[in-house]
Amino acid sequence: MAIGIQITLNERLFLRDPQNTVLGKKIIKHSILLIDEIGFEAFTFKKLAIQMSSTEASVYRYFENKHMLLLYLVSWFWEWVTYLIDIHTMNISDPVQKLKIIISTLVFASKENPSVEYVNESVLHRIMIAEGAKAYHTKAVDDENQDGLFLNYQHLVDKVAQVVLSIRPNFPYPRTLASNLFEMANNHIYFALHLPHITDVHVQGESYDEVESMLEYFGFTMLGLPTSDTR
Amino acid sequence: MAIGIQITLNERLFLRDPQNTVLGKKIIKHSILLIDEIGFEAFTFKKLAIQMSSTEASVYRYFENKHMLLLYLVSWFWEWVTYLIDIHTMNISDPVQKLKIIISTLVFASKENPSVEYVNESVLHRIMIAEGAKAYHTKAVDDENQDGLFLNYQHLVDKVAQVVLSIRPNFPYPRTLASNLFEMANNHIYFALHLPHITDVHVQGESYDEVESMLEYFGFTMLGLPTSDTR
DNA sequence: TAAGTTTGATAGTATTACTATCAAATAAAT
DNA sequence: ATTTATTTGATAGTAATACTATCAAACTTA
Fold it and tell me: Of A84, A172, A174, B100, which alpha carbon lies 20 to 30 A from B114's?
């Protein structure tokens, strides 16, 4: 009797809904762990099947290929972040406060733990940071976009853009700012860990405080808001 | 008697320097065209060999694998952008003007045509936009960074960060701003072309004027500079 | 308890990602 | 001008990847 949040995803992402079956959930669970461990390039359905004591054919009954599985995980993540943002900003009316909460939710997505026992959100967050960009950098983007496979991300960007506009109705680039905050969040955690020369922030373990301050500084400065900077 | 700019790259990027031989240059030339055409995932050394009327084995004598070839192209691109920025800012002393030139160089990299006959810069720019991020999103980043395979990009970020600091000596995130401008430039061209919902800019053909204005707006606003916005 | 659905087991194919070998062509050195 | 060295092409081969197909066993639902 898990509380179970509702994560509704585009049906074209999968051949058979993994959320409906034991095997499906096992696929999600182990794919997250395995992609994190060996990286998306080295990840194969064969290896996944072995690790979860199933067979390649069974995995192929749920996902067309590993790219679709990645797309599924990415959509799941954005849907989940949307959910977190919604519950955290539910009773907040001040849009500036909302933006602050959005930023901290984004950065600390890994810390939250909803009752979806087959998804390790902390590991999924790492996958998003390391592999997320690959979901939309393919020759099939246009078709996939046509099929609505990126709607979750689009809606989230939309939502944040609305907050931006309610802070500064004349801000000329609300979606750009919104998506940039998302991209920066993941990028600069990655840079801090692997290419420290091209960022100024540091992370130790899963403490992303400096990333949060940095995003607030960028977002707030862009909107002409005072930056607290008390850190 | 080509004028021939000097593009010096880390020797670990290749097994044999492609710039030194006819076959090497052919590999660079055709790999750029083929990656652009079919995408990096579908690109193989076999297909490349066929397209350039050579053999798989010959290509493998120059590059360890296609990932190293991509790394080579990415390094080449950043080295070339660095060169362009250097010649364009050579006689400019005002750092604000310098930043402006950096941004426009970045965005219009595809338009410039130095005398490197085997590199189609316009197509390479497209590859950077579509595939560039894959160069550093791998499990081997740390080793490759250790080997200095990302130094070109790092140095360029460094250079821009210095300009940022000469405009605002106390700006807390000079490298972050610099790398973000680079990432945004490519990302938002890509978004405009493929995921228009998550950006505000538009591009038609290879006209990136709106991207340039947007980057100026972001960069200048972050540094507390007036934005011209006359467009 | 019969019918339907899902999974496992196994097999098979085309392609990918290489490595190895050797002869032919080309370039460099004497 | 000819030996020597280097580069390329041609071919072959192997292990892994990315699938598809088939059929029986297990499990669920009616």
Answer: B100
